[in-house]
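the two lines:
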Amino acid sequence: MNTISPWLLFILLAIGTFALRLSFIYLFGKVDMPDWLRRALRFVPASVLAALVLPALTYPNGTFDLSLGNVRLLAGIGGALVAWKTRSVLWTIAVGMALFWLLQAF
Amino acid sequence: MYAYGHTPKFGSFPVMKGEIESFMKSTHRDFITGARDTLPILLGVVPFAMICSVAAVSVGLTPFEAMGMSFIVFAGASQLAVLQLMGDGAVWLVMVLTAWTINLRFTMYSATLAPYLQKEPLFRKAPFAYALSDQAFGVTMSRFANRLPANPAWYFYGSAAAIWAAWQVSSIIGALLGTLVPASWGLDFAFPLSFMALMFTALKDRPTVLAAAVAGLVAVLAKGLPYNLGLVLAALLGIGVGLFAETVSGKQMQGAVE
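prediction for all of em together
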């Protein structure tokens, strides 16, 4: 039960995502978005993305590592500065990956 | 349609025909304008779509699966999240829940666009709902805020179609390039980096920063939970804290006014 075929996974992702996209375009005039939901949705991107980023930087090989030997953490901090200044996915990946490769070489 | 005391003349076929023709043209004109206004945004869409496909191949999907994912899901941030979780060996249910959570934002876009699509038939609403993206929403709403086109729905269709087409072509190129990238490059590190950039665009005020800080901290502490459930717990707590912070600061502002 832990694994399913990639195509079945994609279809599940797609059905839910399509339903979310069509939701109020279809329901307009029939159902209003509740106020609490509208307010809660504002916090979804920041919360989910932070929850994806921080463990990926602090558990480089599956174990917790806050030391200076953690290349992903150091390059990630560099990437965070670029992300903060530019808000650009491309620049963040470019500088972050360059730092990652550079620090690995030492 | 016949405002200012204009009475329609029944039987005056050429007038009717002319009106219908000009209406047809104006919908298509708005479609083209929407697509054209979207062109500068494609500079960001093209590489992002390529990254999604390269990333999919890097976690072991075939190029065909990578293209298929981009084609049927068509939501980059959630695709990258699923791919990172796939690389971590997470269970499928956590991948599905995470992707759906990331895509909850589309309900906001859907609610905002709904009044403009009200009179459109479902056979157009449905495919263009599937093609709704962050970028199409952004382009469309910034135009609507300045000057509303004659056919707002068609303007949105044009923007959504341009992004969709650019995305699909780029994802095919990325899937083919992906097989050329050796695993030793550690390209999986591009996942957290891309999430980082997306996260900073979501940090708009103190409550959103607080939500991100709490979610990030809880995700690190709860990393050991089975099935990557720590991620779901962290997101829920972040959202809760954000809502709470917003409510408290809202009350403070009300108090200051009184």
